[in-house]
């Protein structure tokens, strides 16, 4: 199965991805980690554009090919990124579940972004001002496919909501 957490920086994608992957014994493919490694090891100019996503797709495809569930942690701000995950799942013959993680509490979102430090060498986290003007295109289900909106305010509640959505998908993949 391919499980995607998309959304603006600071909404809780990484927390949810790590926790869910641990529970499912799944692989986590974090675009930030890939991009940080690329920045450390090359002189490619920032922003990297689709490079991190291209690498993430290859890593995820390799994991899916050996039967490992993959949890994606990526902003996926544009339709091409969102479509890419669905194309990947279809090519691998696995169900795809997409979650858009949001923080409806704007003050909390601002607090998290301002308090956030980088946990990866080479990753520069965005400022609140940068998050506010991030080129995150609004989700269009007709164009981007279906997704479940998850409020990232409380990680325990968010994870419980994710499990409710995953149960039917998981049941379909069992023999």
Concise account of the structure shown:
The protein has 175 residues and is an alpha/beta fold. It contains 8 helices and 5 strands; from the N terminus they run βαβααβαβαααβα.
List keywords for this structure.
175 residues, five-stranded parallel beta sheet, globular
Mind explaining what this structure looks like?
The chain is 51% helix and 14% strand. It has 8 helices and 5 strands. It has helices at 13-24, 31-41, 51-65, 79-92, 106-115, 128-132, 141-144, 155-173, and strands at 2-6, 27-30, 70-73, 96-102, 148-151. A 5-stranded parallel beta sheet has the order 2-3-1-4-5, sandwiched between helices. Helix 2 (31-41) packs across helix 3. The chain is globular.
List the helices and strands in order: EHEHHEHEHHHEH
Please tally the β strands and state the result.
5
Please describe the biggest sheet, giving its number of strands, its sense, and whether it closes into a barrel. Answer: 5 strands, parallel
Strand content: 5-15%
Uncertain residue ranges: 171-175
CATH homologous superfamily title = P-loop containing nucleotide triphosphate hydrolases
The averaged pLDDT comes out at: 92
What do we call the CATH topology?
Rossmann fold
Structural class computed from helices and strand pairing: alpha/beta
The shape is: globular
- Helix fraction? 40-55%
Please give the order of strands in the largest beta sheet. 2-3-1-4-5
CATH domain class name:
Alpha Beta
CATH architecture: 3-Layer(aba) Sandwich
Termini separation: 14 Å
Provide the number of structural domains: 1
**Number of DSSP helices?**
8
């Amino acid at each position: 199965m391919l499980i995607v957490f998309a959304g603006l920086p600071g909404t809780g994608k990484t927390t949810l991805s790590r926790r869910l992957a641990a529970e499912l014994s799944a692989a986590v493919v974090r675009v930030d980690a890939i991009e940080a490694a690329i920045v450390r090891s090359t002189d490619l100019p920032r922003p990297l554009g689709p490079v991190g996503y291209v690498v993430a797709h290859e890593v995820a495809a390799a994991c899916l090919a050996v039967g490992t569930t993959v949890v994606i942690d990526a902003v996926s701000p544009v339709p091409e990124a969102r479509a890419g995950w669905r194309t990947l799942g279809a090519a691998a013959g696995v169900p795809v579940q997409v979650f858009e993680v949001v923080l409806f509490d704007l003050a909390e979102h601002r607090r998290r972004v301002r308090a956030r430090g980088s946990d990866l060498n080479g990753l520069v986290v965005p400022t609140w001002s940068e998050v506010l003007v991030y080129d995150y295109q609004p989700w269009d289900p007709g164009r981007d496919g279906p997704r479940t909106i998850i409020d990232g305010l409380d990680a325990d509640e968010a994870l419980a909501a994710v499990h409710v959505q995953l149960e039917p998908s998981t049941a379909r993949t069992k023999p």
